[in-house]
Write a structure and sequence with these properties.
Shape: flat
CATH class of the largest domain: Alpha Beta
Number of helices: 16
Number of strands: 6
CATH architecture of the largest domain: 2-Layer Sandwich
Helix content: 40-55%
Strand content: 5-15%
Largest sheet: 6 strands, mixed
Structural class: alpha/beta
Length: 454
Amino acid sequence: MSKIIKIHEKLATINFYSFQQEYELYRKAFLESNLGEIYQSIPWKALVKSFGIKDNRKGRKSLFSSEGKLSLMFLKAYTGVSDRLLIEQLNANIDYQLFCGVLLSPEDRLSDYKIVSKIRTMLGKKINIRKSQQILAEAWKPYMVDTHAMLSDATCYESELRYPTNVKLLWESVDWTYNQLKLLCKGLRKRMPRCKYPEQKEKYFTYQRKRKKQRKETIKRTRSLLYLLDKLIDLLDQTEQANQNRLVLPEKYYAKVKTVKQVLRQQKQMFETRKSIPGRIVSISKSYVRPIVRGKEVKKVEFGAKVNMIQVDGINFIEHISFDPFNEGRRLISSIWLSQHLFGKLTHISADKIYATNNNRKYCTRRQITTNFVRKGIPGKYESQRRTISKELNKERASRMEGSFGTEKQHYSLQKIKARTKENEILWIFFGVHTANAVRMARKIKPLSVYKVA
């Protein structure tokens, strides 16, 4: 019997396989595939406990089990496709279904692509990065070799965000405030107050269409939008106070109003002082995002989450993640603690120049940890050997660790984080990083021929 049957050849075939036999054949083929190897490298039951997910015994049963919800997030990072396309591929790919623990018949195809977003939002509220990473480290440690050496560096995972300028931000605030005022007046059946919104809208789009924007024009637009935004916020507050007994508004509305008012205060201060301020809001839809100054040639400023990462034997772990800028040089001691907590004794460290502070040097010297830092003072007795070790550590960090950042961003959906809330962005980064780790671990485990499904 041939392995492939052509569809256009109408052959009368009789299938003597039972459902269980056919399922076992598909599962065996799945476990031997690359995706199956990744599946077997993840400790699913322990990871589910770290998230605190439980299957509902009452009410409508969830389509995905607790394990299936996590596997869907891993699959999202692995494929790098949109939520809609992920559901379409899940309907058509038997390996994807086995990875997520579901079997979909042609009559029961999924049509609600928002289920991915719903699961992401649910998991984003439950994630405990430190606890989950400890479980992954315990499962992967038997297959790792150089656990005594740690690499440390920081990177920024950018949010999906238009490049922020003061004029764009002010216009977004003006547009949102005007539309909210319009909706309130319509619901209350009141006349819309007069303002210069239509006129300013035309001037703004005329300004935006220009390829080169002169400084005088930018100052003029900023001043006009500041004045208009201040007036619209006053009108909105007056409308709310006059009709507070008739209005029932959601919490999201008040949170957005608070953000817009903060934008107005910050932009006024910046316009008057001509200086940037700390904690500057760059988007009213993602008010938690801050500018991260990286000092790179291509991108001097990035907008997203800054992550201090440690790497042990090629596997990355998140030490600290924040949307506010921080000095990663102060995180070396906590990085050492994390490495020792996960893998035990630490003897070698490789980190960037920013980590080579006097405090970090003294800490490493007291604990007899060899570093790649440039030596201070008179060379010691074994200076040539120390330089050789330092050179190798530098090479590992510059090639292996920084290369892993590029791999995660290019192939595991971390180039631009498209989540819309802070919790979801953190979850997105967690699964992107550890999906890349699972792929690396599958390659380490495969030669040993030890496959244990947790």
